[in-house]
Write a structure and sequence with these properties.
The chain is of the alpha/beta class. It has 9 helices and 8 strands. The protein has an 8-stranded mixed beta sheet, with helices on both faces. The termini are far apart. It binds NADP nicotinamide-adenine-dinucleotide phosphate (NAP). NADP nicotinamide-adenine-dinucleotide phosphate binds next to helix 1 and helix 2.
Amino acid sequence: MIKVVIIGSGNVAHHLVNAFAKSEAVDVVQVFSRNRETVSAEFNSVKISSDLDNLVEADLFIIAVSDDSVAEIASVISINDRFVVHTSGALTMDCLNTASRRGAFYPLQTFSKQRAVDFNNIPICLECENETDLELLKVVANAISDKVFIINSKQRKALHLSAVFVNNFVNHLYHIGNEICIENQLSFELLKPLIAETANKVMLLSPEEAQTGPAKRGDYQSIQAHLDIITDENQKKIYQILTQSIQNNGKEL
Ligand SMILES: NC(=O)c1ccc[n+]([C@@H]2O[C@H](COP(=O)([O-])OP(=O)(O)OC[C@H]3O[C@@H](n4cnc5c(N)ncnc54)[C@H](OP(=O)(O)O)[C@@H]3O)[C@@H](O)[C@H]2O)c1
């Protein structure tokens, strides 16, 4: 079996440990956590270490800590020709110590400990300094997912940017919708079938084809009526920018 050490005990580490536990090809031989109190119960069967200088040897070291700490951790653990990867969408491979064999293992999904995920359907985007290590990384990724892709650091950054638009920003718009509902004594439940249909529709149509609404139709009366009732200046700016962007088809305003 391929021996893997996971550094970190946050959302991604938690789901990786769970996914590898079900695989026949990968054995998580150790998890590093600087704070044992944050370690999930699922990690009980794995050896936990709080000492970066005393990690067991393994075929692969996966750093799944906050982006700001990846380089610092890599500089400590990148010894003995270890193969080290990180799980970040935003970081290039260069942030890992150049002396080590390095790469990226980026699972493109939103992870929270409290929410179970099916790793089989999660795209894992790989990058590696050398071909031999890439082959090993492919075996590790294929052990938990059917969707494995090879992309470079520039593409990964662009994918991460795109993911921020379709996930984080869309979720923030749900938040604004919820605020407006609360202000008007409406239940956010009313919007859930619409949210589900919008997400399902874009599985079959392109985002451009799926676009509807006052901005797309050029319905200026409705747009003005909405602007008249928005009380929050920030929401007004967001409404205007998105309306213009839809009308310009996502091009420069
Ligand atoms: N969450 C996602 O949806 C997602 C998706 C794809 C990729 N990623 C990437 O995966 C990585 C981990 O993200 P996450 O969401 O799992 O983060 P997270 O839940 O915030 O967990 C971060 C982990 O890093 C540890 N950590 C932070 N700084 C450290 C340091 N200086 N020394 C030792 N440990 C340190 C934290 O320890 P403590 O618990 O002690 O603070 C915690 O275990 C990031 O690179 C992120 O960009 C995240």
